Amino acid sequence: MIKSITGTKDILPQEIPLWKRLESIVHQMFRNFNYKEIRTPIFEETALFARGIGEDTDIVSKEMYTFIDRSKTSLTLKPEMTASVVRAFIEHSLDKHQPLNKFYYISPMFRQERPQAGRQRQFHQFGGEALGSSSPLLDAEIIEIAYCILSELGLKDLNVKINSLGVPESRQKYKSILKEYLFDFKNSLSEDSRRRFDTNILRIFDSKIESDQALLKNAPLLIDYLDNESKEHFEIVKNILSQSNIPFEIDPKLVRGLDYYTKTTFEILSAKVGSQSALCGGGRYDLLVKQLGGEPTPGVGFAAGMERILLACANENSIILPDEKVDLYIVNLDKVVLHYKVYKLASTFRHKNLIVDFDYLNRSVKAQMREANKLKARFVMFVGGDEYKSGKITLKNMETGEQKLIEIDNFSLIADIIKK
Ligand code: HAM
Fold it and tell me: Parallel, antiparallel, or unpaired for β 264-270 and 278-284?
């Protein structure tokens, strides 16, 4: 039997209402902040991500789904959306229409990571990207949107962590200071961290290995080596967040796994989802547009993992959805003769925007009633027998038990009763 690919998941009908709830909050919140939806293709040229995210990041060096297509082009299933949004922004000269562009998206992403709860190989992100302003107001706005969506979902145990990575010049200076500090301990570092020592030293802070963290305990911190502009920018972001009542903590070791960040970075974590606790992450990337071939344009954004968020919601029992009900179930009392009539009746009420179902399996009246109850039908219409011969049907309100005999052709009256 052919099964789904490791690290991918089917989203079955019973889970869809939760996804729709999440999606509707995402659409609503971004609309409130006047972000416009953007959709980009599932795959892009590999070079976009290699250049955008950085060759030495985990994503590019070991997680991308890259393949050569029949015209010998190297393509990659998108592992994240920021590079694609920036590519679209440059390609369509969107800055020519307006100086500030605010985008949002909901899309599947692909990374070949080791699957576990909250970590998949095809997963879904929603996120937002604001391109065209270096104002710290936008850094705060991006964090506020992420926080508000999670709060709107009823999540309580949230931890907002923020940091500043400064600009490349101050970061470069700091990297040599960190290198000097770690040099004596290099042989005691884990294999992964030893590799990062040479390729991407900041990422050593991300190590989950205790002995690495012990060595980092007294390491110099980037936040103490920030340039003045980044420092001021960070102060303003913190002030706005405080004034907006968004609780946050400063985490000087928050480095993020993508190379494009400048100044503010942030993550929101949940204590309720085990080891994969980062529900979302993002930050400012003032150099990315230029790096990908556009006019220098500052940007800031975030992305959130939808599977992880729904896991957190399930663990906190934070989403309570009303039962899905059928408006009308038509019970056929006189099966063979009335089949086509029942089909037509169902169709009539479906065109009046009611959720209507009936029996397609030639079942007994008792079995049809069982089905109506299982579907939580609000009304049942009985069609057949002497009533039908005299042009009438019985409509039963399943909540009150009240029954009415109605002319079969009085569709508006029947629809009005059901819609009330
Ligand atoms: P990221 O931190 O790589 O950032 O991913 C954002 C979120 O996607 C994570 O916090 C996590 O919730 C979710 N996620 C990542 N990988 C997986 C996975 N394998 N399975 C399930 N969920 C996952 C970015 O992607 C940046 N593009 C964010 C950004 C936007 N920065 C600026 N603008």
Answer: antiparallel
Which residue, judged by its Cα, is nearest atom 31 of ligand 1?
282
Provide the whole-model pTM.
0.95
Same domain, 333 and 211: no
Range of the domain at 308: 16-167+227-316
Has residue 97 been placed in a domain?
Answer: yes
- List C-alpha distances in Å: 131 to 150, 201, 278, 297: 23, 28, 24, 7
Q: Is the CB of 125 under 6 A from ligand 1?
A: yes
127 Cα nearest atom in ligand 1: 30
Cα distance between residue 64 and residue 38, in whole Å: 22
312: Cβ below 6 Å to ligand 1?
Answer: no
Same structural domain, 62 and 136: yes
Are 133 and 281 within one domain?
A: yes
| Spatial separation of the C-alpha atoms in residues 364 and 378, rounded to whole Å | 20
Q: Is 146 inside any structural domain?
A: yes
More confident residue, 134 or 338: 134
Is 322 within a domain?
A: no
The whole-angstrom separation of Cα 326 and Cα 336 is 24
| Residues 25-39 as b or e (16 or more Cβ within 10 Å = b) | bbeebbeeeebeebe
Q: What is the CATH number of the domain that holds 74?
A: 3.30.930.10
Does 303 sit in the ligand 1 pocket, CB within 6 Å?
yes
* Tens-digit pLDDT profile for residues 87-123: 999 999 999 999 999 999 999 999 999 999 999 999 9
- Give the chain's domain count: 3
Q: What is residue 414's three-state secondary structure?
A: helix
Kindly write down the DSSP assignment for every residue of 355-410, as one continuous string: -EEE-SS---HHHHHHHHHHTT-SEEEEE-HHHHHTTEEEEEETTT--EEEEETT-
Give residue-wise pLDDT tens across range 174-228.
Answer: 999 999 999 988 889 999 899 989 888 998 998 889 999 999 999 999 999 999 9
Whether 136 is in the pocket of ligand 1, judged by its Cβ within 6 Å, is: no
Q: What residues contact residue 197 under an 8 Å CB cut-off, 6+ apart?
A: 179, 182, 186, 189, 204
Taking residues 134-141, report their average pLDDT: 98
Q: Based on the domain organization, do 160 and 244 belong to the same domain? A: yes
Residues 141 and 22 in one domain: yes
- Chain CA centroid to CA 173, Å: 36
Name which residue sits closest to atom 25 of ligand 1, judged by CA.
80
